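Recap quiz, item 2
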Amino acid sequence: MKYLQEICPILSKRQVTELAFDITVSAPQMAALAKTGQFAQITCDGFFLRRPISICDFDKEKGTLRFVFEVRGEGTEWMSTVKEGETLDIIGPLGRGFEIVSGEGQAVFVGGGIGTPPLLSGASMYGKNATAILGFRTAKAVILTEDFAAAGAKVMLSTDDGTAGHCGLVCDLLLERLENGPCDVIYACGPKPMLKAVAAIAAERDIPCKVSLEERMACGVGACVGCAVKTRTPKGEERYAQVCKNGPVFDAKEVVW
Amino acid sequence: MADLRVNLCGVPLKNPVIGASGTFGYGREYNEFFPVSRLGGVSCKGTTLEERLGNPPPRIAETPAGMLNSVGLQNPGVKRFISEAIPFLKKQGTAIIANVAGSSVDDYRRIVEILSDTDVDMIEVNISCPNVKEGGVQFGATCAGAEEVTKAVRAVSKKPLMIKLTPNVTDIAEIAAAVEAAGADCVSLINTLLGMRIDIRTRRPILRNNTGGLSGPAVLPVAVRMVWQVANRVKIPVVGMGGIAKWQDAVEMLLAGASAVQIGAANFTDPFTPVKVLEGLERYLDDNGIEKVGDLVGKVQPW
């Protein structure tokens, strides 16, 4: 695996909700290597550690990477202040993504809140064979539904407070979707309790399920062993894997929830 | 062009810049950014006799100008270190520094004995890990403990021994003197400073281990001071580390008395830090007409 560092001009920046921002940067070398579900490490001025941000989409011809991120703390708050024409110092593309080969079969993408962005490029690969089940706190926090629809996916929306789409959890919609049609694989990213529930539903029905995880991270490349997640080996032994290098995408069966 | 070569207790290094243990894996990842053969050496991730799983996450917390970690010596054990890491590093052409830890003096003795018959160039003995209940700092925090481990590994080692010291003590120079007397070939310092951060929303420590080791630019002045104190106390070489993020920091460390430096947490901010330090150091020597890097060592002129 080759790691790159690029100083990337910001081509566009848009605020999409109160807390979420949508940034596209020029990063020709990284875009050429990028795979769906990978992430990048972005330097935030004045902060010691880079921020791991999932790659929402990439365009190999235009040489661009797109990031949709939420202000979670001081680092991402700084990221929300960057302007078009300025640059970001980015390392990437990092980690093991969703490893989607053909986009054949019926795929269901389950995204919770800011876990939605890394699923977009994968859903594009499945096009009409994709169902995107996206859940948010409230209508004002909804992101990317139009992008998923434009990629060809059937979008099912839920909010915790019922202000948009189904009132309740993405798992309600997932069960509904699984009742109504075949599903060959589930890809999910979101809060850990959501992922755990999705993994359980997939396991009951014997549907392959890939989950993208996050953890507090330092190096981002597998050198410091900081971002640990407990996993089970095929022999049944429990180990800490590294989210940055062994993941961020894991087989849901490997993860010790 | 200034001569950057260093002879560290019999081990020739092409330059004094070393990737620090615990931040650099076994060199494999950073070799994807730049050839690690550029470096004087790689100090490998702390290795124990048997595999260690490490501490539960979160293991990382950011701090002003630095970070805390509580990894807890996660490593695959000495067998896999020998079969996987050493052959890779041997091919790269940089000095291989094994870093070892144990739960007992006998663990240290056995692992050093095993590594003595491998291709490692030097063994760094970690008696200063703050993140494990056994096998770290309980040996390094007292002169008697540090001396006991050093004597035990000295008796079996065919490799030069570098003892890595903890800053979490009252008088680090006293510990350095004790390991020198017990037969250490050189010392490296500083390991991380014990620290803690709390999430004010949940009122929980950010680290699952509650406390962790502080590294990064925040600790540089502490490290420079301790290197200076130790270099003034012992005759064996001192390898300086702690917060080096740019070439100027490395020059400070050399002036304070370090014969070589290790670059740790700064790799996370900028993976090219060691290369930039190296290039800056070379320019500094040339600009100042200094023929060899060794001429800088310990040349601080204290008031």
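The mean pLDDT of chain A is 95.
Residues 192-204 of chain A form the longest helix (13 residues).
End of item.
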